[in-house]
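Title: Comparing notes on inverse folding

I've been comparing how different people in this forum approach sequence design from structure. To keep things fair, I'm posting one structure and asking everyone to reply with a full sequence. Here's the target:
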């Protein structure tokens, strides 16, 4: 197992302990926010490293760039990139 994988497992274990302490209702809310943050981080990293613009991604997802699903994941990345 690589050092990065070991670090990831330690982090996941720590997150699990934190979520357990929060209780069911709050843990779900925090988990949802964490996954949204991670998704936006991945989108911003992809845009930064690939040289593809947000506009090009939106047009690929939804022709014309319209639609709630097209902008929800990539629109926030534009603010971060």
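Reply #1:
Here's my take.
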């Amino acid at each position: 197992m690589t050092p990065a994988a070991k670090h990831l497992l330690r982090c996941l274990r720590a997150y699990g302990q934190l979520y357990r302490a929060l209780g069911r209702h709050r843990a779900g809310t925090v988990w949802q926010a964490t996954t949204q943050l991670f998704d936006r981080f991945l989108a911003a990293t992809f845009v930064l490293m690939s040289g593809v613009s947000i506009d090009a991604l939106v047009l690929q997802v939804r022709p014309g760039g319209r639609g709630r699903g097209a902008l929800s994941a990539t629109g926030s990345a534009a603010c971060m990139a």
